[in-house]
Amino acid sequence: MAVQHTDFDVVISGAGLVGLALAAELGRDGFRTAILEAREPLRDWPADTIDLRVYAISRASQRLLERLGAWPAIEPLAQPYRDMRVWDAGSSGEIHFDSAELGEPDLGHIIESRVIERALLDVVESLDSVTRFCPARLQGFEAGDGEQKIALEDGTSLTAGLLVGADGKQSRVRDLAGIHVQVSDYAQQALVAVVTTEKPHRETAWQRFLPSGPLAFLPLHDGRCSIVWSATSDKASALLALDDEAFCHALGEAFAYRLGHITHVGERALFPLQGQSAKNYVQPGIALVGDAAHVVHPLAGQGVNLGLKDVQALAKTLHSAREQGRRPGALPVLRRYERARRGDNQLTLATMSGFKQLFGSTLAPVCAARGLGLKLFDRATPLKTQIMRMAMGLGGAHGDRF
Ligand SMILES: Cc1cc2nc3c(=O)[nH]c(=O)nc-3n(C[C@H](O)[C@H](O)[C@H](O)COP(=O)(O)OP(=O)(O)OC[C@H]3O[C@@H](n4cnc5c(N)ncnc54)[C@H](O)[C@@H]3O)c2cc1C
After folding, report:
1. What is the pTM of this model?
2. Atom of ligand 1 nearest to the CA of 14
């Protein structure tokens, strides 16, 4: 029987996409890493089904997945989107982003969460330096002499120089560490579903701002679209309760029939929407990454992308610390990670909240200004290019940092 190690450089709690990517990064760099996950991952699924969790993955995230060796398994199931069209129900403004204008082959890819997860899991399992504990749930931890003593619910004890909370927006690591989290309730829920449209999606990501919230159609590799319809909680619940025919009709109308009629809808699900920001990302021996540290509105599809930037920043910080002979859990080391990431994450959080308020208004002057603003913005090619490159993680204030 293989001996299971219990002493690690880093223990990561949570094997969502962010935790798995971090385990792959650190494992490839030779850190003795453990990753804990409460639920069994999905490895197989019927060929004609699509996960309800679908992400717009930026170029920067794609590069990370390529570097980690996960991209070849993802690419055949990834739909590139080459155009993006954003318009407003309350005014005549519209913005068009075109990959050709940027000299890029595409603006990003739409990919199912489970496809990325499986590919990252394969990478992690190929690394001798990484040990997976699954199903395993973190119960508690205690700071010792330069190390964390970590207890799992099944009674296993582990030790690590650093414990990373990659355990999502209800992070247990964050709560146990007593790190305060600021929550902004958007009073909205996102309804997600996979739909068939009368007209082809033309490899375009579409988003219409309605007074009740944004409605996005994301192109899928099998020709269908994944929709994310953010609306007030009452409206979202009412949409969920409609029968399929009435829902398709309501959706077609809300989308101004841009892709013709909606001919089929699959299972529908609601996700409550909140903005969250942890007061600190780090403590001695503790670091938070991904949704454990920050949760943004999904309207710009940035949550996973920001989490993957956290991964690169933390991995780079730990790598430099090891070269300087410093402990991974030392507070000055971890503060470098926090400084590198907090500004970018806060900026995205604030921008998304601002967008939500701006486009949620039905006041006539706001609508008129919005329409004018969108039209002017659409013609301001250098600014448009700069913003799109930032969204792709390719440049701008923080994009090139890691
Ligand atoms: C409707 C919607 C659409 C979205 N669209 C996009 C998009 O297009 N692009 C994008 O980039 N982002 C998008 N996001 C955001 C994205 O879903 C999140 O940012 C992302 O899932 C965060 O990943 P994570 O790994 O940090 O956390 P999670 O995915 O929440 O993973 C946390 C993991 O930790 C495990 N865990 C929790 N507690 C414990 C414990 N005590 N012990 C062990 N394991 C534990 C959980 O089981 C889970 O697997 C969207 C979000 C929503 C709601």
Report:
1. 0.92
2. 34
